[in-house]
Design a protein that fits this description.
The structure is a single chain. Helix 1 runs parallel beside helix 2 and helix 3 packs parallel to helix 4. It is built from 7 helices and 8 strands. It has a single domain, classed as P-loop containing nucleotide triphosphate hydrolases (Rossmann fold, 3-Layer(aba) Sandwich), CATH 3.40.50. A hairpin with a 7-residue loop joins strand 7 and strand 8. It has 223 residues and is an alpha/beta fold. 48% of the residues lie in helices and 19% in strands.
């Protein structure tokens, strides 16, 4: 299920650990929404890395989305606040906020994420807020542990899996959906704009069943 667009502007906050692919995912989402005719504002709330702001600026140019950013080291919550206000003033449909990568074991950084989420909820309301956790599928079950901790800091509404190959990371998807009750919204397959797809449960189940059948066949041949 893709992002739900509710009242204007819908705010999408992306969170996750370092290297999970948040900034690239934010750019891809902006490009997709722009292509669909939506007016998009990008919020460069990863203020710890100057490179993240520069990267998001490139995505802004590529997608035609407006970029709201402050200086390196500024308050990320203030960036998100200004982006939402700018979206309201210009009649934008969606705000996509990129946040800094943070280890789920760093209490102070998780508290900062909570502050950002409270601003999003206050300014946009619950019905127009999406809090999506970006998980690197390659790390397997460690991703599930990350999701558990991030859910304590954020009212998560879904997950985006990056570096996804459709079959080998099935355990992560099943754990996230069954144990945490979080839907997988998108899967990232590469670095190109089009390499972000809506997660299709039917395709996943079919691929997983094919994989299991293949494993059984191998076991039969060895017996």
């Amino acid at each position: 299920m893709p992002v739900r667009l509710g009242a204007k502007p819908t705010v999408v906050l992306l969170a996750g650990v370092n290297g999970s692919g948040k900034t690239t995912t934010a750019g891809k989402l902006a490009a997709q929404f722009s292509k669909e005719g939506q007016k998009v504002v990008l919020a460069a709330a990863d203020t710890y890395r100057a490179a993240a702001i520069e990267q998001l600026s490139v995505w802004s140019d590529r997608s035609g989305a407006r970029l709201v950013s402050h200086g390196h080291g500024s308050d990320p919550a203030a960036v998100v606040f200004d982006a939402i206000r700018a979206a309201k003033a210009s009649g934008a449909d969606v705000v996509i906020a990129d946040s800094a990568g943070r280890l789920h074991t760093r209490h102070n950084l998780m508290e900062e994420l909570g502050k950002i989420s409270r601003i999003v909820t206050r300014e946009a309301g619950n019905e127009a807020s999406e809090f999506l956790l970006v998980l690197d599928a390659v790390i397997g079950q460690n991703a599930f542990q990350q999701a558990k901790v991030f859910r304590e800091a954020l009212p998560l509404t879904g997950v985006i899996l990056t570096k996804y190959d459709n079959t080998s990371k099935g355990g992560v998807i099943l754990s996230v959906v069954e144990d945490l009750g979080l839907p997988v919204r998108y899967v990232g397959l590469g670095e190109k704009i089009e390499d972000l797809s809506t997660f299709q449960p039917s395709d996943f189940v079919e691929a997983l069943l094919d994989l299991k059948e293949g494993c059984l066949s191998k076991g039969d041949s060895l017996s």
